[in-house]
Amino acid sequence: MSDKYTLTEVRAEIHPGVTVIASVSTLDGLASLLEDLKAHGMGPDDRKKKHTDKDGAGTQAKDASDAACDSPSARIEVNAGIEKGSLEKCNVLAFKDGVPQLLRPGAFTSVTEGALVLIHAIEMGLRSQGMDYEAFKGLYEAQSLKSGTPLSMLMTNLRNRGYLDKNAYRDGRKIRLTAKGDKRAVEIMKEMIAGG
Amino acid sequence: MAVGKVSPWIKGIVDTLVGASLIRQSSIPTENRLVVILVDTAFETACRAYLKYNAKIHLDQNHSHRDNMVKAVRAKLPLVDAAVWDSIDYYYQEIRCDFYHQSAGKTLTDSDLLDYQETVEFVMDHAFGIRVAELVKAEVTVVTPPDSPTPQALPTVASLTDVDDDRDKVLVAVAQVLPSSVEQVNSHLRQQGASLRLKTQDFTSIVARNSGTKKFYFFNKELRRWEPSALGRFRISQIAKGQTDE
A–B: how many Cβ contacts below 8 A? Predict the structure, then answer.
């Protein structure tokens, strides 16, 4: 394995809304994981095969469906296993000009939860991992989240609860969710959708 | 708000933090230790200035003790959470006093220091109704020689021709040129090999319609030029990572 990168985690979507997250540190480990998934008919490729139209008909419809799936909101919804369009319909989250926006910032139980969902929206919706603190601060301040605590302390709260990668923050003030943080963000969004 | 237009007592506080920023950019081995001491000085000065000039409280012998003074400020700022005061108190008791009076060799990590400074600036923002960090950033730009590296440089977008969306191209060009006119933007676009050209009204429409704290641009009145806002910098960081609008 090259010493120019380090494997830490792999995410394999085995079914719409179902993503396997595994800690992997070597390429051998990654190969074993993919083999095991394939052996159980859950490999990422298996999913594609099931969806492939045998005679090629319906390819156009599939492309249209993929395009709809490829919007930032749809990516978050598919990953969370929630109904498509519900994030916007329930006024939780929307994207404009490539920027996520919390539609009801006052509806979150705490500002920390709002910040968590916002980070998840960037990582999952915009496929952007490990953003700079200063870049995130600009986005956070544009959300009208009323708080008696500065963002830096909210990030400390998230780190202490295990939702943010501590090493990434310490090394370069990079903001990156842990698997636990992703899971919690999904729970918060589901709670908001269920609550209307 | 330009630094030149703020009250003189705020100017002094901002200058202290500008000094802290310049030390942090320096190559002094224990620069963070010095920055902690300066940031705490700025906080204590800000508390005194707030009570005297904003809260209009007559300062007496009691206020010469830091504890009493901070308590008085805390009582006047109920919107600031208790955890914020606890954090500042912790840094004062456990770190600043140690650095100031005892340990010359100790220092603090960069991320902890930035967290501490942001906490102090948060209290100042609430007390004076200003954005201290913006004032400090503007002043650092003025006092730093043009060829010096800036501490929070924008993420690099390798080539404007790789940016698909025209709105993104304009945002990146504005961030790279910090223009006062559309000619400077067009000249930069030409230099970078991008085919996009803007008419004056197009440019004005883009930056003016998208200016403000919740938009991508703001007009720096002091330097008379367009700059990306904090949200604009976030967008640029996404463009730099190869993101496009969907």
Answer: 87
**Does residue A148 lie within any of the structural domains?**
yes
Confidence of residue A66 (pLDDT cuts 50, 70, 90): low
Domain B160-240: give its CATH code: 1.10.10
What is the domain count for chain A? 2
Q: Which of A152, A154, A166, A170 to mutate against chain B (most B CBs within 10 Å)?
A: A152
CATH at A130: 1.10.10
DSSP classification of residue A52 = S
- Examine the domain organization and report whether A135 and A163 are in the same domain: yes
Distance, CA of B157 to CA of B232 (rounded, Å)? 13
Helix (H) or strand (E) holding B218: strand B217-220
Residue A68 is predicted with a pLDDT of 59
**Encoded tokens for A83:** 């109904």
Cβ of B245 and A142 within 8 Å? Answer: no
Put simply, the answer to whether B237 touches A72 (Cβ < 8 Å) is no
Answer yes or no: is pLDDT of B238 > 70.
Answer: yes
Model confidence at B1: pLDDT above 70: no
For residue A51, CA distances in Å to A16, A77, A157, B65 come to: 12, 19, 43, 73
Whether residue A182 sits in one domain with residue A96: yes
A89 and A180 together in one domain: yes
Query: Among B204, B159, B163, which Cα is nearest to B182's?
Result: B204
Question: ipTM of the predicted structure?
Answer: 0.75
Q: Which of B83, B121, B229 sits opposite A138 (nearest CB)?
A: B229
Under an 8 A CB cutoff, do B234 and A156 touch? Answer: no
Report yes or no on A16 lying in a domain. Answer: yes
pTM of the model: 0.72
Q: Report the residue from B83, B111, B230 with minimal CB separation from A149.
A: B83
Domain boundaries, chain B: 3-143, 160-240
Q: By the CB < 8 Å criterion, does A83 face chain B?
A: no
How is residue B20 written in tokens? Answer: 């802290």
Give the pLDDT of residue A136. Answer: 93
Tell me, yes or no, whether A66 lies in a domain. Answer: no
Same domain? A80 vs A48? no
Give the domain extent around A25.
1-52
Task: Identify from B80, B111, B215 which residue to disrupt to test chain A contact, counting A C-beta atoms within 10 A and taking the largest count.
Answer: B111
Is there a contact between B114 and A136 if contact means CB atoms under 8 Å apart? no
Residues of chain B with Cβ-Cβ distance to A136 below 8 Å are 234
| A60 within a domain of the structure (yes/no) | no
DSSP secondary structure string for all residues of B12-45: HHHHHHHHHHHHHHS--TTHHHHHHHHHHHHHHH
Tell me: do A78 and A113 sit in the same domain: yes
